Amino acid sequence: xxxIKLLMIPILGFSIFSFSNYNKESNTPILFFKNxxxxxxxxxxxxxxxxxxxxxxxxxxxxxEKPLIQYLKELAxxxxxxxxxxxxxxxxxxLVDNKLIYTENLNKGAGTPSSKTTQLKHTIPLIYPExxxxxxxxxxxxxxxxxxxxxxxYKGNHLLTIEVKPYVNSSSLKVGKIIAKGDLNMKVKxxxxxxxxxxxxxxxxxxxxxxxxxxxxxxxxEALNKKIAQGRFEHINGIVVxxxxxxxxxxxxxxxxxxxxxxxxxVGKTIxxxxxxxxxxxxxxxxxxxxxxxxxxxxxxxxxxxxKDSVTLKSLLxxxxxxxGDDDYxxxxxxxxxxxxxxxxxFALDLPMSTAxxxxxxxxxxTAGVVVLGDVLNKTVPNGLxxxxxxxxxxxxxxxxxxxxxxxxxxxxxAGGIRLRAIDFAKYGQLYKNEGYWNNQQIIxxxxxxxxxxxxxxxxxxxxxxxxxxxxxKTYRVNNKNYEVSFCSGNGGNxxxxxxxxxxxxxxxxxxxxxxxxxxxxxxxxxxxxxxAVI
Length: 535
Description:
Distance between the termini: 43 Å
Number of strands: 23
Oligomer: single chain
Strand content: 15-25%
Mean pLDDT: 94
Number of helices: 17
């Protein structure tokens, strides 16, 4: 985010200097104040104590001996000023009770060039009652909600320490000595909550399900319910846990109930994988190696090349099609550029092929490619995609309450446009756990289930992150044991987890759309609460 000029205005009206924030290791102290930094008429008063979840504003200020660029030159004297500003900036470290919680190397867009080359005094807002387009506000958000701050500062009295260093990341990362440092006594009040939301919710009889009598650690789930009630885990709507084909846990929050239809976003992509497998099994598509040129006259689309002729359905299933297509915001194939168009399939097929990506080898998350897959299914299976999915998948599972969204061409939206009840998403997950078998019927072939859940292609996110046929794969580690899981994943924190070696399917529905910490929150729910409760 850009560090706009308003942030650069020196704050006037200082109080007496507080030396308690000074540390001999640093060249300058960090001072804190809890006035509204935008209010220039209000006298700024430096503080040593702050009450989290009560005080509305928190900003920090420090004045360096020399501009940042001079510190960067000491780390990389061979680089030009332009190179230094492109590859270096401040590094902020957040410590709670002297334990390092989070370190952020600010990107080059944090701060104006003049603030790094001439400015000595820096004023940075951290906490504000409304969203700020300042990098400091986002940095605090990442510290608190994505990197452990909320749990380190959960309740009680704590010491928050912030350290500032220069860094340059050229051929290697070089970090300088501390140039500013400050301490702040943090009093953290427990967030209020409705105590009626904590007890385990009773499971009512459900069509197609038996209710499990297995014992689990209810105190863990009640602790989770409390955190959800407090807003520690935001926007969670439903949690369903199935053990050995039986309902073990079913909890709803934030106005949701069993009958609520949840918008799981990209969880719905995986439905396209399922229908592709069924269509192959029934002979409507020869196999997943079928090429797009068998379904479209690709020469009639923009940016035609022989390489485009070689794109397979499998490469769409594994997000490795080789198109210049990626949901990264800077990519021309981003789904946000697709939605305003009148023909989503044309949008995708008009994209050029990448010269840097081989088909079937390099993963790039490409929503528009799954729309093409849905269109192929719609024109190939009897009566179209929606009717075929109902006949071959939803009806056999006993799922009758659901809702499709549609593309501009009135085709079921496989980008993620289908809504089901959380308990029915659990049926879908259990179908894969059962190797495609449900209620005395083989709905999906065992072979297709194996391919779908397997590690087809490496993802760039973590060492244990892989992709199958529109399924994700990863490993959770709990109490020094690894638990492999395949899962569907959607914006907002929506998940269907199918565990490999333990008899569980877990569904989490949520509506934190666009919030980057929702996926890490769900990971924490799984590792700190659900798995410890049921294993």
